[in-house]
């Protein structure tokens, strides 16, 4: 129940932070050019000084602790949880392209891990059991998608461990979900959309094209973020390693410039833009997906605590917007949903989790087969470009000779 309560409070806090940022924009569209880089520098300074382990989304940290319980005390402490909440709030307050869903996974895992003290005889097995349950409950509460929480635990976090601990896992998700429902009501994350009512063979080429587009885009994101020294100028790589606060300042300035150029649409998680496309009332530039992609890459590279789930869904919706205008075969809401699941699956390489999340978020049961097909195909395309994003980052936490990544 505590995971659900904290997840809802965290969601409200992040929404409030972005609302304050939007109010600031009303006083001057140029203000992010000052606020965002300064906020980025402060956020990374605080992270480096006080909250090492809170970087990035938090999902790689959870995966690493499930594989090596010795890392739990440094990556799942209550101090890390507080830092995750506070600095991601600072990030969204400054307009960074980050989401709250990944951090909620680490927050949920940290809360449940702390409960090990309530056991008379704690063990590594109990700690892993609690961590897994907390992480899954956090994701379920973040998206209001209980089934996705179970699938996420099975597919992404700990494949063999889940079967022996399904009772604890499902119980945690149920209690977390009940609290979230009690506080926020029974809602759909993106609302109900106009789905595909019938499947026609003429749709197959469009589904394949959507899979290829999102698979390549998601795979390129993974490759870029996992191979930074191979493409970033050596001077910037050196600055990132030696002076992360200065590098974060440059990242913040870049994010601000992208945001100003986009008319403010790339700031934040992208929830409003994605929902607008799903409801067919948003008028976004065809360049939105590209600009959002760039803003997410820079936000990630800065090392600020924050997730990539929601921004990835927004990028996918932007790609769907382009495809809907090019093909006109599938209505915009359905095309946006298909590309959302495709891009998310390509980035995470977790196709089942991705299509279950999107299906539950839009009540898209009529689109199960197309969603599954695009998720599976885009994942295969992504795998040809880059390895598993989260698991590769988790391995870096597990490898003593490799420096712990500043983001995740």
TrEMBL record:
Membrane topology label: Multi-pass membrane protein
Pfam families noted in UniProt: Voltage_CLC
GO function terms (MF aspect): chloride channel activity
Membrane-spanning ranges: 27-46, 76-98, 130-154, 166-190, 202-226, 247-267, 287-310, 322-347, 367-386
Subcellular location: Membrane
Cellular component terms (Gene Ontology): chloride channel complex
Superkingdom field: Bacteria
Keywords (A to Z) from UniProt: Chloride, Chloride channel, Ion channel, Ion transport, Membrane, Transmembrane, Transmembrane helix, Transport
Protein's name according to its UniProt entry: Chloride channel protein
């Amino acid at each position: 129940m505590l995971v659900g309560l904290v997840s809802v409070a965290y969601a409200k806090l992040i929404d409030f932070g972005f609302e304050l940022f939007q109010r600031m924009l009303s006083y001057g569209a140029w203000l992010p050019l000052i606020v965002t880089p300064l906020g980025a520098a402060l956020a990374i300074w605080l992270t480096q000084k006080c909250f090492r382990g809170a970087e990035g989304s938090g999902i790689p940290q959870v995966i690493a602790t499930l594989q090596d319980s010795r890392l739990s005390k440094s990556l799942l402490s209550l101090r890390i949880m507080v830092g995750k909440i506070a600095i991601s709030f600072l990030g969204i307050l400054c307009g960074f392209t980050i989401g709250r869903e990944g951090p909620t996974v680490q927050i949920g895992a940290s809360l449940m891990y702390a409960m090990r003290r309530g056991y008379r005889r704690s063990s590594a097995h109990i700690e892993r059991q609690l961590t897994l349950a907390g992480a899954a409950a956090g994701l379920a509460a973040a998206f209001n998608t209980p089934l996705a929480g179970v699938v996420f635990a099975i597919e992404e976090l700990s494949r063999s461990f889940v079967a022996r601990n399904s009772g604890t896992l499902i119980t945690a998700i149920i209690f977390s979900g009940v609290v979230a429902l009690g506080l926020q009501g029974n809602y759909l994350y993106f609302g109900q959309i106009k789905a595909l009512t019938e499947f026609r063979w003429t749709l197959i080429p469009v589904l394949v094209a959507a899979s290829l587009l999102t698979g390549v885009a998601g795979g390129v994101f993974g490759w870029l973020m996992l191979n930074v020294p191979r493409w970033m100028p050596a001077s910037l790589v050196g600055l990132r390693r030696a002076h992360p606060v200065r590098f974060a300042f440059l990242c913040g300035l870049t994010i601000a410039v992208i945001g100003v150029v986009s008319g403010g649409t790339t700031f934040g998680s992208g929830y409003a833009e994605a929902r607008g496309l799903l409801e067919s009332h948003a008028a976004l530039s065809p360049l939105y997906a590209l600009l959002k992609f760039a803003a997410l890459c820079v936000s990630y590279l800065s090392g600020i605590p924050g997730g990539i789930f929601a921004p990835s869904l927004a990028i996918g919706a932007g790609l769907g917007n382009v495809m809907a205008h090019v093909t006109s075969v599938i209505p915009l809401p359905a095309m946006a949903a298909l590309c959302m699941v495709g891009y998310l699956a390509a980035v995470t390489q977790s196709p089942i989790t991705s299509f279950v999340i999107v299906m539950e978020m839009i009540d898209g049961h009529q689109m199960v087969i197309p969603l599954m097909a695009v998720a599976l195909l885009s994942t295969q395309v992504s795998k040809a470009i880059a390895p598993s994003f989260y698991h590769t980052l988790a391995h870096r936490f597990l490898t003593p000779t490799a420096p712990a990544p500043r983001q995740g």
